[in-house]
Amino acid sequence: MHPDVWTAWLAALVDGPIAPPLPMASHIRELREAAGLTQEAAARMLGVSVASWYGWESGRSTMRPAQFKQWCNDLEAQLENRLKDVRALIATA
Predict the structure, then answer these.
(1) What's the rounded Cα separation, in Å, for the pair 69 and 33?
(2) Quick check: helix, strand or coil at residue 34?
(3) What value does the mean pLDDT of the chain take?
(4) How far apart are CA 89 and CA 39, in angstroms?
């Protein structure tokens, strides 16, 4: 995903009283792929059906902003855990 899209989303979610535009299917897919998740794993992570996830990535349905925010928070937590593991390995080397 282009960094400007991510920055705009975060700014809208944090600062703006106006709801951000809903994420495009390609952005949802790009984030999922960058995190190394399958559609099934991403759906499970957010607690939705695989059919819902397929719909979001295909553009047939739209992820709610609150769901997108929760998913981004979950991805951030997952990344932080991975970074802690890497730092621990470096510290013991």
Answers:
(1) 17
(2) helix
(3) 81
(4) 30
